[in-house]
Write the structure tokens for this entry.
Amino acid sequence: MAIKELVYATKQQLDSVTQQSFRHSHIYELFAASFGFNTRASLDATHLMAVMQRPQEPVASSLATLHRRLVELGYQSVADTAGEALLSMIAGQRLGVISVESVIDALQEDSWAYPEEWFEVDEDEDEHEASEAEPAGNSTPSLDHEKLALLIDGLSGAASRGSAVAHYALAHIYRGAGLSEKEGSSYWYSLMEQGRDLDGVQLEWAMAYKTQLLNAEREALHLNEAARLGWADARLDLAFDKAQLAVHQGDHEEAEHWFKEAAGLGDVEAMRSLAWLAQEADDHASARHWKHQAALHGDVDAMRGLIDEDDRDNLFQSWVWVYLAEHLGTDLRKSTLRAYHDGGMYADQEYDDDQGGPLYVAGDEGVRLAPLSAAEEEKAKKQAAELFSNIGSEGALDWMPTARGSFV
């Protein structure tokens, strides 16, 4: 349900239960008050309304704000009745709010955080009722991905006011995350465009494909606008998409350009791709450079590769990579060799002697390095700690000496 439909239905409900006419503009204000905002403008400035998977109970401060706004807007005589009806509708529709800055994580992780002071659970409610609502202070209430219209309305409004994150969130939605799409058919769509009268499942396939094309256009529009407004993730998505298209078309020069754009934004996958392109061109200095950049940005696999190849004769640097990997939660010295079932009903599962049968061994035996002196070990650990503190910062790209070559 979009915001206008929601407001219309709410107005009808309040008019019915109070026998008093509510203005449409006041319904917006009352929704804002229900979530603890003094005005609709203050809600729209930082937050969006959305439908959640489970309802939540408003805290006392939000109830007080709602009651005060009802009085201020001229509904004092029916304030209690109207407030109760509105809160009932909010619970029934499972409405909530999310900060604009949190919406990307919400869409990607199917959750978002609510300020703890907004909601509380009545401790006197029985176990069944408590299980129906989100617990107080729950940091990850879930979005209902089948009811995104209200969120899309709010995002569209924020995007029209120049919000880069709103544009990026809309691009994410139209990319397909959370959208329930039927499978479309380009064949039946082309026939429909040629004037063929379709019905039944053929028409459904054609219309579904038309919707997919429209969503692709919307995604591109919002992604480009988010990038134009400076949203780094949008710039990264565009660069990576163009780079992969260039690779597919065999245009390595174009691919290099866009992978560099993505690498400049800290994307490790782009750095790996640049190393691969350099190797394909026998530019070993540039390949080594980009492997190091990937390692400096936290790619543990790149660290292991450098220990085995480019830095195999540099004992001190190899230990720096080992200690850096430890900071990232991986012990490169630990063997990961394991036996697995080879075929049968337990194929590729870790080998169980009780089941028996053929097996194969996979994994890594771990790094084996000669020890450093106490002074060198302390120095290597210090350097690894400094590198770890730089991961995710713009300075990481500048730490290693720049290799010479066409891919740098």
